[in-house]
Task: structure prediction
Amino acid sequence: MMVYNQSMNNLPDDPVLALPPRILLGPGPSLVDPRVQRAMLAPVVGHLDPAFLKVMDGVQQLLRLVFETQNELTLAISGTGTAGMEAAVANMVEPGDAVLVCSSGYFGERIAEMARRYGARVETLRRPWGQVFDPDEVSQALQATNRPRLVALVQAETSTGALQPLEEIARVVHAAGALLLVDAVTSLGGAPVGVDRVGIDICYSGSQKCLGCPPGLAPLTLSPAAVQKLESRRSPVTSFYLDLSLLRRYWGPERAYHHTAPISMVYALHEGLRIVAEEGLEVRWARHLRNAGLLWQGLEALGLELHVEVAHRLPPLTTVCIPPGADDLGVRRRLLDEYNIEISGGLGELKGKVWRIGLMGFSSRPELVELLLAALRKIL
Ligand SMILES: *Cc1c(COP(=O)(O)O)cnc(C)c1O
Result:
């Protein structure tokens, strides 16, 4: 066993100092904006320090802007995107509730699994990975469900590269008297989400995808109808850490301690959101779309086939079919070793079939697209 305290001279080389600065073009984390990195160097203060509370207020205001919502209950959950997902499910599901999950990918399945664990009667509407749902089939599935309380969808399915349209589905869900829960982990800051415009009741995201921050915080917002559901629960939320009725007392005027906020990550998110606001939402969405377009064109020029039809492609994340004869792992290994570029393989049923290329936040830049295409041209 390695014993650290015998002598300072025996310390092994520091693996952290040896970390290479990678070019992150996978499904997340994406490159961290240098301004965000600098913000994280600000002094750590107490979680109830008036100076820190101002940062929290700023985060809430900026999140409302980026989510496009007036929702009062808008905050950041401590944890990655999955913590946002679990907070959404844990707070909105009570044992016995009927929940319809529309799943055409890995993250849709994850929502269904969580809802089952929190005691929901889960109905799953499925489509092949890479496709999207239309309002009519959701409406039919709702009619076949006994008293549906909640419908969950992934807007930006990072496992498949498909972007789910939401406007009409929101109308269908509300007409059935249910709430709409949307995973916007890979869309927020990279493609329109529009919580109030669309009519999303529960929406969550992650700091590490299109917001240009490290992994560690999960933005979340609840509509007034979702808050009403929270307040009329018959049973307390099983998870103490993710209980929004407690968390809102820390993020709101009461400032009641619940858990120590991850201070430096809150600085990071604040700066990441400021950058989004400075760039402007529409300009930012257009940048993601433009750079994705360059990538799609370039991949097709290399003779590669894209997995999702163009009408439903997700600009922040592209799935490209691995060409016959190419070695999935070998190609990714060479990209990393020779070009310092990270892309990712397929998840679940697309494992071995596609590569996943992310152009998210600070990673969405034309020169990085050119670099990746040049590297792929050499390797393939
Ligand atoms: C990345 C991702 C998650 C999970 O986020 P983690 O940061 O890995 O916990 C959930 N949903 C979608 C759509 C994602 O892309």
